[in-house]
Specification:
alpha+beta, 5-stranded mixed beta sheet, 5 strands, 48% helix, globular
């Protein structure tokens, strides 16, 4: 059976899937990973380099995982759990357990509440008034993350070890300098982000993505 294929970019939420797959130990065995350009909608690397990304995923978004049977997954709550289910090194609790349902809940929160809010700040056409509103909403989400989710100073978002939720949350938080959100207002969030960024396998994953880039 052929491997599944991940399409990602190095800085979008698709990168969280690469990091998770790297930690899971499945890159090059169960999962091939190639880069796409979501601006030009072209595949950048791999056997389909230069082809129309819309032909692979009509939504044109990343992450996209194409399974061996041709099924296309393109939302983080699904792609990251596929990675967790196929991991060699665990990056999520087993299916059917309370811990797994908690992981699903956290992934959904990141997607709908945090990513769904802060992502709007990438829109260059926002008026000053609308941007101010979105920044305020973003800070509300980060305050909740700081005061509730990370209130005990935990190192990992779910449970006692790194999971796919950490890879997703880490990447979303990494956008803060680009969208001008100040994480120093939220010391537990800032400490969590720093801790995840310093994990050796996270550094390795970033280096691998950079090496795989066409411009490298």
């Amino acid at each position: 059976m052929s491997n599944a294929t991940l399409y990602y970019t190095t800085t979008s939420c698709g990168a969280s899937n690469f990091i998770a797959a790297h930690r899971a130990g499945i890159l090059g065995s169960k999962l091939e990973a190639y880069q796409a350009d979501i601006g030009s909608h072209k595949v950048l690397t791999g056997p389909k380099a230069g082809s129309d990304f819309y032909a692979i995923n009509p939504k044109g978004n990343v992450p996209t995982i194409v399974l061996a049977d041709g099924t296309v997954l393109n939302e983080n709550a699904a792609t990251l759990q596929w990675i967790a289910d196929n991991a060699v090194t665990p990056v999520g609790a087993a299916n059917g357990t309370s811990e797994r349902y908690l992981l699903q809940s956290k992934l959904s929160w990141i997607s709908s509440e945090l990513h769904g809010t802060v992502g709007g700040l990438f829109n260059p056409t926002l008026s000053a008034e609308v941007r101010e509103f979105v920044v305020a909403k973003s800070y509300q989400k980060l305050q909740f993350l700081n005061d509730v989710e990370l209130a005990d100073g935990r190192k990992f978002f779910v449970g006692s070890g790194f999971t796919v939720a950490d890879s997703y949350l880490y990447i979303v938080l990494s956008w803060s300098p680009y969208i001008k959100l100040d994480l120093s207002k939220f010391p537990k969030v800032e400490a969590y982000f720093k801790s995840i960024s310093e994990l050796e396998f996270v550094k390795e994953a970033h280096a691998a993505m950079t090496k795989a880039s066409p411009s490298a």
